[in-house]
Amino acid sequence: DPGAAHQRTGSCTSMGARQEPAAGNHHRGSGKAVRNRVAKKVARQAAQTLQTQGRLSLSRACRLLGISRQAFYQQRSRNEVRALRLAPVRHLVQEKRQLMPRLGTRKLHYLLAPELKTRGLKLGRDALFDYLRGEHLLVQPRKCYTKTTNSKHWLRKHPNRTEGLELTRPEQLWVADITYVTTKENTAYLSLITDAYSRKIVGHFVSDSLATEGVACALKTALKQRKANLPLIHHSDRGIQYCAAPYQEVLQSGNVLCSMTQGGDCYQNALAERINGILKDEFLLTPCPDLQSLRTVVAQSIHIYNTQRPHLSLHYKTPNFIHEKSLEAISNQGSKNNLKTVNLF
Question: Which InterPro entries does this UniProt record tie to the protein (predicted)?
């Protein structure tokens, strides 16, 4: 699940050199044992299929596949007991996915862990993954693309001021982007402003066009919520909406420094692209009837994203939690900031 604002980094563990056992038989034996277990599982599944389809009796299917009927029934009994024990898990998963339909396994495991512990259910992340796969509850990737950026224009393009930037607080860097969202009537455009440190969406606006006014509305919303009187950078692509005079005037009135990607490198605004993907792939799954209903759904989705969806890059905390706690720390400490430094990408 990425799932990731400042950075979209994965978790990476550095492992030092370890002395290998004197002989490799232990590892080969372990690998062989795993292969044997998998082979037996496949054989039992095949026997069940052959019997269910009426092609062979269970006894003949077991003999053909090299397993005993006793082992088959013992495993089936264990599976039934396990399915009964894990029955509440399906309900818990469906409950979480009512709000976040495409929430990934790692985030689900984190959110479900307290409830599972209360119920006395021991279920690790990999076991949950296997369970979801068996219940056909894994989310499938979605891919689609519509161009929303027009950078071939004569307006001034600003330099990229995010290279080498260390993020130490909220309201240090905002990233902006536009993405399309379809309704049953037409195509709408969602403008987002995201705080790179906390991953919180601080401003948004849904428009029926790519006009600068809609994009500027998202920025104005973000500026109204701004709390810290500290230097702030606004980073976006080189789209004509962001370069236009009305948008630049809003930035200047808020004393915000403008930064833009160079050339057509989308990775220079990777966080904004990632947030677009989260909203569209996890929340905005069904086309709304019209623009007004879409605006309502987007507002609800952003609220859930900010307040309930855990982020791997935030150590499973929510954007709103990190944003508010960090700003509170800044307020209490004055200019001395002891917040954790994070990477942008």
Answer: Integrase_cat-core, RNaseH-like_sf, RNaseH_sf, Transpos_IS3, Transposase_IS3/IS150/IS904
